Amino acid sequence: MLLSHMANQNRISLDTVFHALADPTRRAVVSRLGQGPAAVKELAEPHDMALPSFLKHLDMLERSGLVSSEKLGRVRVCTLHPEAFQTANTWIEEQKRMWERRFDRLDLLVTQLEKESGDVRDN
Amino acid sequence: MLLSHMANQNRISLDTVFHALADPTRRAVVSRLGQGPAAVKELAEPHDMALPSFLKHLDMLERSGLVSSEKLGRVRVCTLHPEAFQTANTWIEEQKRMWERRFDRLDLLVTQLEKESGDVRDN
Predict the structure, then answer these.
(1) Strands annotated E in B1-123
(2) B89 contacts in chain A (CB < 8 Å)
(3) Between the CA atoms of A58, A59, A60 and A66, what dihedral angle is there, to the nearest 10 degrees?
(4) CA atoms within 13 A on the CB side of B86
(5) Among A52, A64, B16, B95, which one is most buried in terms of CB atoms within 10 A?
């Protein structure tokens, strides 16, 4: 029960993190926040779109856990949470380990076949 | 001109790869194909959905470049192309390097401030 709840949470988090990164505006915001917190106005400035559209992108980033925002006086300031990348990174790394194991096995098989065909030729 | 075309291609590829990974069915297909090529029928089998819905997921994976398919006789066989992950992986790694540089600078600043406040206390 607890494990299936955790797997579910993990799935939702992978869905929302990958979805958050699947857009150039959202990736640009993540890159900018990688250099330090910034006000919404400053974040929106380089993007040629209406503020409500930009706020929808920010909302998606907040729902993914990659970004949080806080009202300081009259200014809303956004902060990056790089640790939210971790599930996505871990998933990609797991896939790479699986392929590498598979290619190692294929390499071994090819080496064995080459050796056997060499043995056949030598006899 | 060429550079902006390349940047554009790269952006589209990041968009489609991250979007392809933002769904549990598509990630399950990627994991399965990491173990070797498989027929569409075999890939669809564990997923509780109508074949047309499943084919839409496959189409999205093909458009991202992560998967290709080929008709062998009467069977369509899918193959993974792990190299398509590379742009996504490179982007995440670049972000990590940026945060690390930023935290290194913050660490340095804290060390300097601690040293200076120590010097003040010592005098």
Answers:
(1) 38-39, 67-72, 75-80
(2) 92
(3) 70
(4) 6
(5) A64
Amino acid occupying residue B117:
S
| CA nearest neighbour of B58 among B82, B41, B73 | B41
pLDDT number for residue A96: 86
* Site of tokens 């729902």: A63
Are A67 and A18 in contact, with CB atoms under 8 Å apart? no
Q: What is the mean pLDDT of residues A78-90?
A: 88
As a residue count, chain A comes to 123
Nearest to B88 by CA among B10, B25, B29: B10
Residue of B nearest to A15 (CA): B22
Q: What is the mean pLDDT of chain B?
A: 87
The B-side interface with A (CB below 8 A) comprises 11, 14-16, 18-19, 21-24, 27, 30-31, 34-36, 80, 82, 85, 88-89, 91-92, 95-96, 98-99, 102
* CB of B89 closer than 8 Å to CB of B49: no
Query: Nearest 5 degrees, angle CA A90-CA A91-CA A95?
Result: 115
Q: A92–B102: do the CB atoms touch at under 8 Å?
A: no
pTM (predicted TM-score)? 0.81
CA distance B9 to B84: 13
